[in-house]
Every structure is written in structure tokens, then in C-alpha cells.
Write a structure and sequence with these properties.
single chain; mainly alpha; 3-stranded antiparallel beta sheet
């Protein structure tokens, strides 16, 4: 969906990443592109994510390239001592130090990122106590620890999306596998799994997080592992229902009669039918995962202190009501991100729904399946006209229509 399909040789179908797309996939892509809100939301979200993915090149307290005495250095990728640039100390050079700047600019030059701060850099030269209001140096101001808000938003956006994406993908893999096993085999396996899910789903996850935070310091992987224990259950019901419906179809019985193994039938023949509902569910799960991490960081039981987090910026806005830019910035960032994900999810749902016709979608090509005279579905007006015609033809005295 993020890249436009390219036409193949004359007489062939549309190709994408070297593979030929089926007519059904092409129709779904056309339906997705016809939903302008979801289509442009996808591009905006991908642009923001790619920018945040390379956050070190957008917001960093180290320059990209340093040229000193004819030598080229890359501080963003390697650490250099201050003595490399004519300083007195063997420690890593602080390129924001006026003395180091003067040494380098005397015999060279530097290329800086757009934002000259990362999410941990403390601005020691603020003209007023932190949190400082927005200005020319800090576009969205600083937080109560004199850290640049723009830099923390960029890094926080990246870690939130990556956390939600990893959690969603792994949860989908576990949930799809469990739902497939339940729906395909049924019987006692399905019954026991359903009772286990009912018991496991009743566990108080918030209390478990609080207990874990009191024992160990939560980090990215601890939170991911704990939330994975519960997030996979949302996919089970959708996939289980699809497998329960499809396991008695004729093609499944034919495959069994031919001696095809159960795993091949499940994951090669039945699973593609269940993936439509799963893919439709995934954007909304991603939005929920991002919201969950933001909520935990806001409560103080999420990522470690000092980590770039949207929830931490929101908590600072609550603690510093005299600095409204903190709360407003975090609120609008979260609102825009979740709105884009919801719009994408709605577009994917409509594109995969065979019962929903998107306005503006191109009509089927002449001569294609479904456009033949015998396959057409009559409109209400056509049905009414046909009924009136048949009634007139069958009425007594109407051109001999009443005689046998």
C-alpha cells in the first residue's frame, strides 16, 4: 500500500515487488487509494516515522561531519577525544562547548543537525529558569530539566511507534497461531483453550506492572515481555471464528481426502481467509499499544526515568501548569498520531470489506468476470420494471398471455 504497483509486460498483470498481483488484490489497492483520508494518513504517518527513525540525524548534540586540519570526522557515529581537535582533555569532546567550537572553526568547519539537542541534552545557557518558553533556540521550549521538547518528541515518537509495532506483530503471530489451533481442531482443545483465555484475561495487568516496577526497574524489553503475555488474546477470537467457519468447506475436505497434512491445510489454505480480519484488526491494535505505553509512562511505571517518552512529557505538563506548552505539545502529538492510525485502520477495513464499495472506485473492466450479462445483479429499478413486464405479459387478455 505504501508503494505504487508497477505494470508488467504487455498482456500481463500488475506487479509489485516482483510479484504479480491478483485481480482481488488490485481491487483492494484501488479501494484503499480511493479512501483519500486513509491514503494520505498513511503517507503522513510514514513520513513522520521515517524522520523519527533517523532521529540522530534530525536532533543531536553532535555534528554530522567535522572537518579539522584537512581531516574528516563523523562524531555522530564515533567518539573523539578533545585532544583530536587541539583541546587539553582526553575525554570525549563536547561540540557545544564554546572552547571546542572555537578550536574547530579556527582550522575547519562543522555541519549540524536541524535541532542541536538530543533527548538527554541539558541546555545550561537558558536565559530563564526551566521550563523555558518556546523561542528561536528551542522551538517548543524546554521541560523542567532544561531539555529540548522538540528533541524529546522526536525520540519519544520513535520509541512509541517501535514499541507498538513490535508488540502488535508478535501478538498477532501468537494470537493467530492459537486461534488457528482452536478453530481447526475444535473439541476439547478448543474448550480448554477458551477456559484458559477466560481465566488469563481476568488477571489484573496493572497490578502486575506495579509489582514488577517495585522489584526491578522496567525497561523496553521488560514491558514488552509482560504486555505480550496478555495482548495476544485479542486476535484469538477473530481467527478462531474464521477457522470454525472454514474447516467444513469442501476444499478443506478435499485436501484431507488427498492426504494433505493438517498444518498445510491450516496455514496454506485456511489461514489466507482469516488474514483479512487479522490485518483489519492490526492498525487499531497498534494504536492501542501506543496508548498503553503512553499511559504507563504518564503513571510513572513505564520506561526508565530520563527516557524519551510522550507520556513523560504529558506528565511534565500536568506537573508544570505554569508551562502550558508542555501539556499542549504532548496532547496534540498523541492526538495526531492516534488519529492517523485510526484513519489508516478504517481505510484498510473498508478496502478489505467485499460488501463495501468505496465511492470513486473505478468500475470493472468490460468483459471481466461479474460484468457478463448473466452475472449482473439487477438494480431496484430494473427489478421493478422486470416485475411489471412479467405481470403484464401474464395478465389475461394481454396479447394472449393468459392462454396456455
Amino acid at each position: 500500500m505504501s508503494a505504487a504497483p508497477t505494470p508488467s509486460a504487455p498482456g500481463g498483470g500488475t506487479r509489485f515487488l516482483g510479484r504479480e498481483l491478483s485481480p482481488l488484490t488490485q481491487r483492494r489497492l484501488r479501494n484503499f487509494r480511493a479512501n483519500k483520508r486513509g491514503y494520505w494518513s498513511l503517507w503522513i504517518f510514514l513520513t513522520l516515522f521515517i524522520v523519527a527513525l533517523f532521529a540522530e540525524f534530525v536532533a543531536n548534540d553532535k555534528p554530522f561531519i567535522v572537518s579539522y586540519q584537512g581531516e574528516i570526522y563523523f562524531p555522530a557515529f564515533a567518539a573523539y577525544p578533545e585532544t583530536t581537535f587541539g583541546g587539553d582533555f582526553e575525554t570525549e569532546a563536547d561540540f557545544r562547548d564554546p572552547h571546542v567550537k572555537q578550536l574547530i572553526e579556527r582550522d575547519g568547519w562543522m555541519i549540524w543537525p536541524i535541532v542541536r539537542y538530543n533527548h538527554r541534552t541539558v541546555a545550561w545557557d537558558l536565559p530563564e529558569p526551566a521550563p523555558a518558553p518556546p523561542g528561536g533556540e528551542h522551538w517548543l521550549g524546554t521541560d523542567d530539566q532544561a531539555r529540548d521538547v522538540v528533541a524529546r518528541l522526536i525520540y519519544g515518537f520513535r520509541i512509541s511507534v517501535l514499541f507498538g509495532f513490535v508488540l502488535t506483530v508478535i501478538s498477532a503471530a501468537i494470537g493467530v497461531s492459537a486461534g488457528a489451533m482452536q478453530g481447526f481442531f475444535g473439541g476439547w482443545l478448543d474448550l480448554l483453550f477458551q477456559r484458559f483465555i477466560e481465566i488469563w484475561g481476568g488477571m489484573p495487568i496493572l497490578y502486575l506492572l506495579i509489582i514488577m516496577a517495585s522489584i526491578v526497574e522496567p525497561n523496553f524489553w521488560w514491558l514488552l515481555g509482560l504486555l505480550l503475555l496478555f495482548s495476544w488474546m485479542g486476535f484469538v477470537g477473530v481467527v478462531r471464528a474464521e477457522f470454525l467457519r472454514a474447516r467444513n468447506f469442501d476444499y478443506v475436505r478435499a485436501a484431507r481426502a488427498l492426504g494433505v497434512s493438517n498444518l498445510v491445510i491450516m496455514f496454506r489454505h485456511v489461514l489466507p481467509n482469516a488474514l483479512v480480519a487479522t490485518i483489519t484488526f492490526m492498525p487499531f491494535t497498534l494504536a492501542g499499544s501506543v496508548t498503553l505505553l503512553t499511559s504507563l509512562d504518564f503513571l510513572g511505571i513505564g520506561l526508565p526515568p530520563g527516557s524519551a517518552s510522550l507520556g513523560e512529557v504529558l506528565a511534565q505538563g500536568k506537573a508544570n501548569l505554569q508551562a502550558p506548552w508542555l501539556g499542549l505539545t504532548a496532547f496534540f502529538t498523541i492526538a495526531v498520531m492516534l488519529s492517523l492510525l485510526i484513519f489508516i485502520g478504517e481505510a484498510v477495513r473498508d478496502a478489505l470489506d467485499p460488501r463495501k464499495l468505496i465511492a470513486g472506485a473505478p468500475p470493472p473492466e468490460p468483459g471481466a468476470a461479474g460484468d457478463r450479462e448473466g452475472d449482473r445483479t439487477p438494480t431496484p429499478a430494473q427489478s421493478t420494471g422486470a416485475a411489471q413486464t412479467s405481470g403484464a405479459a401474464g395478465a389475461p387478455g394481454a396479447g394472449g398471455g393468459g392462454r396456455s
